[in-house]
From TrEMBL, chain A:
This is FAD-binding protein. Belongs to the GMC oxidoreductase family. Keywords: FAD, Flavoprotein, Oxidoreductase. The keyword Oxidoreductase applies. The keyword Flavoprotein applies.
UniProtKB/TrEMBL annotation, chain B:
Pfam families: Gluconate_2-dh3. The lineage of its organism: Bacteria, Pseudomonadati, Bacteroidota, Cytophagia, Cytophagales. InterPro entries: Gluconate_2DH_su3 (IPR027056). This is Gluconate 2-dehydrogenase subunit 3 family protein.
């Protein structure tokens, strides 16, 4: 019996445990197994195997029961998920339904989740820009949050490392505010996007329209073929899962790569309840999990743990990992755990039309989605009455015109040979928000879910800085669009709640001082250094760039550190 | 009974069920529609009326029409599953009022009118909505839009007219309009 127990414990002991298999968890798995560590990845949702589990990937529009639309009863049952742009008939099976995983909204917050192997990396918008020196220096310069314990130079080689493997398309634009990376060829701007780029150079020097940088294989390299991925075929149906592996996801890239090494054990359908802390050893020793279906609990052990559960769920897990040493949550000596949550303000949009360049349209589809304007406000110095600024997604497209009236044979003819409509232009603000103690998550004191986890209670809201920044976005883009000759310019406040940007960050922030932060410069918990947090929870500030690329780079860097420390027997 | 035989018998039953309504030339008002609906109740004659309306909107010409493509079944499916309750009620009320409107304007049932008569009636609703009840106009507009969606989203349309490409494999941001064979619902993006 004793032997059996020893064997059982041995079978449940690994060199490293990774909690979560999404964007950053997949990277942790890849890097750890590349370095030869026997690694367990636990994922709360079901497995989604590349190609095998993409049920809608090759469906034609007419093969969907509702032409791609979400039935009204599904919408009514899922008001939160329904607000997410990927919650359509082709991909809604990859989005968490409201009723399955409830949470508490102290203030309106749309929490969009993907509980499956690959997490939201299956569904993301694939925009990948590096942070710049100005972004890491931001909090210290502008006096908010706490100083980042790292600078751009610390992360630059790790950006290169992950870019080469993931495959990032982009131009080398030579901008200090948006450093260049290891790029595959960029997807080009179209006629009107390019027109705006040129006009802006004249009307607003210092503001740039560049090809959006994205995680698509425009020209695959041997390292991508080695992953089983081939050139992006411009389907732009990414949210279904891509049979070509044309865009980067854990499912198409890091997870199968790690499996191929023979060092990865992938364990789906396991919900982590707590990280085990050994009071004698003064270190984390493993995790207790509950089987999502049978509800049976098991423990797994490893000398190092990577927490990559997705920003808010990482907060939830650490808050729930209490011990005599850490009564308020693992590593939470400072009382800061769960606080200083921030996000990106996506609530401002601009629309316009352009009557020029009528001789051109586009053909095929652009995986990049068009252009990108790096932040131009308060970059080099403070120049407005609000802090920080916004990046902007920018795109132009033409479509056919639908006849508003008429019927019969003439209608049919119009539908079969439709007129080409005007150029339509859209821009979306991606605003940096300031992390504040009053924007927090905590455990609901009473309610638990069916896996025994306390419900997460979210209290996150916009502030005055966000309102001022939004006003500036509207004014600046009205001016820039007007000077570019665009017409029917409309500013639109979407009124959406925080969360729908799906860029929630923080709560377990990095910092120099254990009194005001949870993680050190290597993403280790100050007070429990064999636990690393490298998903969105670690972010000290948000900047304006889509965050995934930075999570990937931070993860690879942290794994390198962890394995180095293990070898030196420091962990 | 072994499993394979059971499955075979089951598929025979399903086959019979789908054939059955088409075998009946007479439809009765207490008979349900051939499409199985969860939220709205549509009788067989109402379904037939809708089929005639759809055919008037998208008639058979040298290319297939609404009946050939079964567009009224798509309209009912979308009405049932993807239309808010208020709009559903307006649609059904308008559909039921349409016969009355026909009697007044054409002196006969919609189904008994000639194709030009039906077209003329719907054209009046299209052009002069103020002369009709809000239910009839609401029905017409929803039916028209759903029929258009059904037509332009049909396999026929997307393979023979404005061809849908699952795998374009290209992007050109400066494509000359003069080279364009047919305008698509959306160029450049998904």
């Amino acid at each position: 019996m004793a032997n059996l127990n020893i064997d059982s414990v041995k079978a449940r002991t690994f060199d490293a445990i990774v909690i979560g298999s999404g964007m950053s968890g997949g990277w942790a798995a890849k890097e750890l197994t590349d370095k030869g560590l026997k690694t367990l990845v636990v994922e709360r949702g079901p497995n989604v195997q590349h190609n095998k589990d993409y049920p809608t990937t090759n469906l034609r529009p007419w093969e969907f029961a509702h032409g791609g639309k979400v039935p009204t009863d599904v919408q009514a049952a899922n008001p939160i998920a329904s607000r997410c742009y990927v919650f359509k008939e082709d991909a809604m099976h990859f989005v968490v339904k409201d009723g399955e995983h409830p949470y508490v909204q102290e203030k309106p917050f749309d929490w969009i989740r993907g509980y499956q192997v690959g997490g939201k990396s299956l569904l993301w918008a694939r925009q990948t820009q590096r942070w710049s020196a100005f972004d890491f220096e931001g909090p210290a310069r502008d006096g908010f949050a706490v100083d980042w314990p790292i600078r751009y130079a610390d992360l630059a080689p790790w950006y290169s490392h992950v870019e080469k493997f993931a495959g990032i398309s982009g131009h080398r634009d030579g901008l200090a505010e948006l450093p260049d990376g290891e790029f595959l060829p960029a997807y080009p701007l179209n006629a009107v996007e390019d027109h705006f780029r040129q006009q802006l150079q004249k009307s607003h020097p210092g503001r740039h329209v560049i090809s959006a940088r994205c995680a698509h294989l425009s020209k695959p390299q041997p390292i991508h073929y080695e992953q089983g991925r081939v050139q992006c075929q411009n389907r732009v149906l990414c949210q279904r899962g891509c049979p070509f592996g044309g865009y980067f996801s854990s499912n198409s890239s890091t997870i199968p790569w790690a499996l191929k090494s023979g060092h990865l054990t992938l364990a789906p359908n396991l919900v982590v309840q707590t990280i085990l802390f050994d009071e004698q050893q003064g270190r984390a020793t493993g995790i207790r999990v509950v089987d999502a279906h049978t509800k049976a609990t098991t423990e797994y052990y490893a000398p190092i743990l990577f927490v990559n559960a997705g920003a808010l769920n990482t907060n939830l897990l650490l808050l729930n990992s209490t011990s005599h040493r850490f009564p308020a949550g693992l590593g939470n000596d400072s009382g800061m755990l769960g606080k200083f949550v921030a996000f990106h303000n996506y609530s401002a949009k601009m629309n316009a039309e352009y009557e020029g360049l009528q001789n051109f349209t586009t053909d095929g589809r652009s995986p990049a989605g068009g252009g990108y304007l790096p932040r131009f406000r308060n970059v080099f110095k403070q120049e407005t009455d609000f802090l920080r600024g916004y990046a902007t997604s920018f795109g132009a497209s033409r479509g056919s015109v639908q006849p508003g009236h008429g019927l019969g044979a003439s209608l049919k003819q119009q539908l079969e040979r439709p007129a080409l409509g005007p150029w339509k232009i859209s821009a979306g603000m991606m605003g940096e928000t300031i992390p504040k103690e009053t924007n927090y998550v905590r455990l609901d004191p009473a309610r638990k879910d069916e896996w025994g986890m306390p419900l997460l209670s979210v209290s996150v809201a916009y502030d005055d800085n966000d309102a001022k920044m939004k006003q500036d976005f509207f004014e600046q883009f009205t001016d820039m669009f007007t000077q570019a000759g665009f017409t029917n310019i409309e500013a639109r406040d979407t009124g959406q709640a925080p969360g729908l940007d799906i860029h929630e960050m923080g709560g377990v922030r990095m910092g120099r001082d254990p009194k005001t932060s949870l993680l050190n410069q290597w993403n280790q918990l100050h007070a429990c250094p064999n636990v690393y947090v490298t998903d969105g929870a670690c972010m000290t500030s948000t900047s304006t760039q889509n965050p995934s690329l930075t999570y990937m780079a931070l993860t690879a860097r942290a794994v390198d550190h962890a394995v180095g420390e293990l070898k030196k027997q420091n962990l | 009974m072994n499993r394979r035989l059971a499955v075979k018998n089951l598929s025979l039953l399903v086959g019979a069920a789908t054939l059955l309504p088409a075998c009946l030339s007479q439809t009765k008002s207490d008979q349900a529609a051939t499409v199985s609906l969860k939220h709205v109740a549509v009788s067989a004659p109402e379904e037939q009326l809708l089929a005639e309306v759809c055919e008037t909107l998208i008639p058979k010409t040298d290319t297939p029409g609404a009946k050939d493509l079964g567009l009224h079944r798509y309209v009912l499916k979308m009405l049932d599953d993807c239309t808010p309750a208020k709009e559903q009620q307006l649609f059904l009320a308008g559909l039921r009022q349409l016969e009355e409107t026909c009697q007044q304007q054409m002196g006969q049932a919609f189904g008994e009118g000639t194709a030009p008569q039906r077209l003329a009636l719907l054209q009046r609703i299209d052009q002069q909505p103020q002369q009709f009840s809000k239910e009839v106009v609401g029905f017409y507009r929803s039916a028209r839009q759903l029929t258009i969606d059904g037509y332009t989203g049909s396999k026929y349309f997307m393979t023979k007219q404005v061809v849908y490409e699952l795998v374009p494999g290209r992007y050109n941001g400066y494509f000359p309009v003069s080279n364009l064979r047919v305008a698509k619902p959306s160029h450049g993006q998904s």
